[in-house]
Amino acid sequence: MSKGTVVLAYSGGLDTSCILVWLKEQGYDVIAFLANIGQEEDFEAARIKAEKLGAKKFVEDFIWPSVQANAVYEDRYLLGTAIARPCIARSQVKIARRENAQFVSHGATGKGNDQIRFELTCYALYPEVKIIAPWRIPEFYNRFLGRIDLIDYAQKHDIPVPVTKKAPWSMDANLMHISYESGILENPKTHAPADLYLMTKNPEDSPNTPDVLEMEFTNGVPVKVTNVKEGKSKDSPLDIFSYLNEIGGKHGVGRIDIVENRFIGMKSRGIYETPGGTILLKAHLDIETFTMDKEVRRIKQGLGIKFSELIYNGFWYSPECDFVRHCINKSQENVQGKVQLSVFKGQVYILGRESPKSLYNEELVSMDVQGDYDPCDATGFIRINAVRLREHHRLQGVSTIKK
Amino acid sequence: MSKGTVVLAYSGGLDTSCILVWLKEQGYDVIAFLANIGQEEDFEAARIKAEKLGAKKFVEDFIWPSVQANAVYEDRYLLGTAIARPCIARSQVKIARRENAQFVSHGATGKGNDQIRFELTCYALYPEVKIIAPWRIPEFYNRFLGRIDLIDYAQKHDIPVPVTKKAPWSMDANLMHISYESGILENPKTHAPADLYLMTKNPEDSPNTPDVLEMEFTNGVPVKVTNVKEGKSKDSPLDIFSYLNEIGGKHGVGRIDIVENRFIGMKSRGIYETPGGTILLKAHLDIETFTMDKEVRRIKQGLGIKFSELIYNGFWYSPECDFVRHCINKSQENVQGKVQLSVFKGQVYILGRESPKSLYNEELVSMDVQGDYDPCDATGFIRINAVRLREHHRLQGVSTIKK
Amino acid sequence: MSKGTVVLAYSGGLDTSCILVWLKEQGYDVIAFLANIGQEEDFEAARIKAEKLGAKKFVEDFIWPSVQANAVYEDRYLLGTAIARPCIARSQVKIARRENAQFVSHGATGKGNDQIRFELTCYALYPEVKIIAPWRIPEFYNRFLGRIDLIDYAQKHDIPVPVTKKAPWSMDANLMHISYESGILENPKTHAPADLYLMTKNPEDSPNTPDVLEMEFTNGVPVKVTNVKEGKSKDSPLDIFSYLNEIGGKHGVGRIDIVENRFIGMKSRGIYETPGGTILLKAHLDIETFTMDKEVRRIKQGLGIKFSELIYNGFWYSPECDFVRHCINKSQENVQGKVQLSVFKGQVYILGRESPKSLYNEELVSMDVQGDYDPCDATGFIRINAVRLREHHRLQGVSTIKK
Amino acid sequence: MSKGTVVLAYSGGLDTSCILVWLKEQGYDVIAFLANIGQEEDFEAARIKAEKLGAKKFVEDFIWPSVQANAVYEDRYLLGTAIARPCIARSQVKIARRENAQFVSHGATGKGNDQIRFELTCYALYPEVKIIAPWRIPEFYNRFLGRIDLIDYAQKHDIPVPVTKKAPWSMDANLMHISYESGILENPKTHAPADLYLMTKNPEDSPNTPDVLEMEFTNGVPVKVTNVKEGKSKDSPLDIFSYLNEIGGKHGVGRIDIVENRFIGMKSRGIYETPGGTILLKAHLDIETFTMDKEVRRIKQGLGIKFSELIYNGFWYSPECDFVRHCINKSQENVQGKVQLSVFKGQVYILGRESPKSLYNEELVSMDVQGDYDPCDATGFIRINAVRLREHHRLQGVSTIKK
Hints:
Four copies of one chain form a homotetramer. Chain A is 45% helix and 18% strand. Chain A is α+β, with helices and mostly antiparallel strands. Chain A folds into two domains: 5-68 and 75-166, Rossmann fold; 171-354, Argininosuccinate synthetase, chain A, domain 2 (Alpha-Beta Complex). A five-stranded antiparallel beta sheet of chain A has the order 9-8-7-12-13, covered by helices on one side. The longest helix of chain A has 28 residues, at 375-402. The interface between A and D is medium-sized, with 31 and 31 residues.
């Protein structure tokens, strides 16, 4: 008799292939869910269509809100893996509910962030679900101590083993980025080998002439990107983001090598490449500051940092993340306009910007024209700001003398 | 009879040269104070020595605390001008006190941030001082409506006028950066001309091979930089910073084009190049996250943002800035170690890091070794984090049904 | 010929009566605007109706958002004056626009917060307006050096002078509170005289039995208050707030004596009584924490503090205050339910609460029932939270030994 | 053979008495540690001395830093239990280390905060320690399902059972406060019975005349308290705090009834009485705002909220709490002076204050004297603050027209 049905987040790799068989061995019925697909169609066309559907959702529902937030964890990481997890788990939960499966399972390790992101999403959207995390089950992890054990098990059960030589690190790829960690990268002093990067060209080998792009934003998200020289443009979310990946990848944009703090309190070393996301971050920062009130920006900056921490820690589906997302989205109402930028040798250079909603007032700020501004006002402004500083100094003076 | 003595922050340019003469015309005794110098020596050697003294102070007292703070205004500007103002005004006030001058004066415009930074410093350190800001005095600014009027006045008073053709923008340079604004740059859509930059090479023309540096930090400030290939190293603050400027400049590092929010509430467009500071920011971010506890880092990140706003707004000498600086300095006690990085074509790439004080524990985080960590604990951790999310979902479910 | 039309915020007191005449003397046409009224009707009924209209607006548009925010400045002041200013100035601007008046004027002093709150509202809602602030105009303030000068002027111009003896302090009253400052209160050591308070009874003389109220909230604002013993209830905003004032006043609730920091950087001593507002703050804090998710609460708490500072400083009508108000309002969607409390001798005691939207789960939290909770999970939760602390300790140990 | 030595935090109550015997049954050697004592002396005098030693440490090392921080969790709870846990656990760890015990144990439940506070302290100070939490061990909690089981077990093992009738709630008392929860209080709507409170008098029965105190602070902590009418004063930390408890208790000060958010994500209802702590909070808020710069105060307020959350969640011994405590302590350097207050019928009224370090400047703020202040400056201050608001309005106007 079956112990019940498990929906497994299946990647096609060695780990989840073995988990699939192992779960069956344990007496479960298993539904393998390949992220971004959700069907078991055999036909290539249907698969591609499904993939695009998943990718489209990923861009619109997860990448775009992150762009609005300028989401960056610990000042550097653009959260490419962190936003993918709730996207995958959301679909998995949908299938589990549809199929009346009481269980979900995944192949994430017991030391990482992904297990948390995955499971918090499942609990949030399907509170009664039971989660099977084999890499935290002693029977499992004591049986499969290394890659050799998995390969043996795979061969015994006729699981096709990827023939490609395993890289001496692990990686995770999605439309937004690729992350690399573990293996030889665990020594934080070891430089990443040049052949590690798959999504971006080495800037040393990238083109010697820049591409110049014009990005158009509405409500803080890109609605069009145009290659100024080539005249080519894209205007659907998925096309825009894919094109930015292409241009960013071609010019080696978005590589970082960092040590970050995991939610569980360990420091870990990760290498990431986020070509399109990096271009978008720079362009959005520009148009946002151009169009958003200064003090709104300060408050929103704090909310964006909070948002980034929530995403990193796996709380995409949480009341606080809903709340922050709502607030950030509200802040973007006037973030509209065009940014021109060039992409070259790993770097993005902002060149100029324009907007019908900008608070920039050329006449007001001009050094050559007075505009609606009386410089004498600044005297009072400064003197009032100094009231407190002068009092402080006087008190200190008094204290010093008394001592 | 003299109206009193004025210490004028004199730059040697057209504006302050005219102001100097104009102040005399108004009946003041004027002491011209050339920043970073403070003497009227004629001898080149003495001048250079004094300059270095000023520069050394600038690096140690102003740039280093900013490095500790990862000070960045509105996510992009490294505050090169903003930290120079209190440094200059501090010296100016010292002279004013020594010379019993009741007045100080400067050539900053009435729409900018610098007048504020300058004057708040003066009021904070010399509360009784009287400030003469000619560009806010109608008699002055109505008399000198354009550059032509200043040149006329200069010629009439035998003030030497710089013969070089004036660039169609204004600039401000110091050891940390050069800023460019006004003139043709006031249109935020206009691209900066290629020949604008003086401190950094155009990345298109920069070397085709990177320089690799090793930066050593103690207490969150650099104590040594070594060019790994050349074996050359520097170890005094001024030498280190100057060398980073040299390397950063050679590779076109640290150029940004932004619209920022001035303290007085206008948006203004600025172009900055901060070669050494940009390298330092990246290196410091790396070593800091490597060695600092995660939660201390979060709190300190907030203080760093506050610090940046205070600096930008001119409050370097204020009780709150003293307080924040003290706290940030405290946070840097264990920020110690070495970062390896490469500099190439406008970009800085972190390659690796090591530290005797790192909280990074290779065994703990390893995917191959269990270390002092029980993966089962993560189950409880996740489930407890989910308590709240599951309750929220249930309530929502109930609400939804009720509706 | 008239210099133009001025809408004066007229209070009926000595200052604004003199200002009215003085403005006419200066050649202006003056419209006296008596806050909350806006008409020059003579009929008592119309006046009362208009007053109620103003008061209703004040409660709904200004007090209610402050209740949602738990708005408190510097941990103690409930902002009764601060929220009244934008309410008054909004009406004044409306009249000025309707009457094509280019000027507005007020009687606020040049050292206080009210001038700022008043004028920022005017500039925000009517950017072209010109403001006449007599207490900042040397011709005015040098002419009227003390109260005597005003009285003389009043008598000379047949302005009726209030016959009541002037209290040795100034006060400002509205529906929400009365503030007392200046005069003998300027010495921060001087105790407030017992007869100062007008809105609340001295707790020493207040009733010896409490009143018990039940407050019902929807969207974070009260929709009904019931006196449990008397069975009496109120359910319109103005009635609810007035009744809370009555009960709070009867029991001496809401008196504070503080030194606060004005926006202009001075410290000033103020005494406030806010009977109804104090009851509401306590009740709202209770129902909010009962119904709001913990992490939403933390974020919202920060926004509430920001909101309070904005209100205090006069930025009610600003993009950032709009933004924060929107976010706070969003946070209140589920803040619904009933709070029982007693009011007695200056204090408010929460007795109990209930809500259809509470995240409180009696079974989950019970010490006697396990509920949907496995205590073993807490072990993992704690151990993972300790990972970081244990690493920190080890590093410290190592450092200590090395030293 | 013994399984090892356990240091048990023993309270003398039924639970920990049974745990003591149960641990022995399981094969452990047990050292019972009675908090604040630490010896097994039989002599009353030695016990009292030891108790005082513990209490003194509790006041100086835990209560005083909380006073400096104005530590309040979720706007109401003064953290009386939360700061006691690390104090107790610190001593327990000290004994464990001294006695070479590998284990510590406690009687806290599996749903509460105390288990976390207790264990995080142990892990932080003694990373290798093993923790036995019986209420999270199925063998234990399945055996002792209710109080009856514990009593049976106690009688079987000759454990003296407290003869007093158990109250229908649980309580936790220390020098700072008593907390009440569970049992009939689990229904958040149920009013607390009048006889629940042990530390404070019912305000309805408290004296009809206030006590007036003068509190003197140095470095943000009280150094002396004087009863103004009686002339009596106290000047050691323990005496001061005990006296404030006495006065506060006599007048019914510091009772609250709240629903709070536990760290583990549940909402729970708690009733607290904190007489001395409540008086201190009010007095400290007063002297702090009187002496601290406005902007330092804003930053420190945020740190104080952070500190409160850290304490509540059990992170007293953590790098971030060390950091925040250091910063807060630094902020208190000038928090010095005297506050006069009256205590009456459950309320604390601030009457006046004085300080040699106050930034309050009576002449500067006076409405009757101009002082070193030019009211015209305020015009410029306001107009510059309005620049942004006016621009915003104009843009909105334009947008509205365009729509």
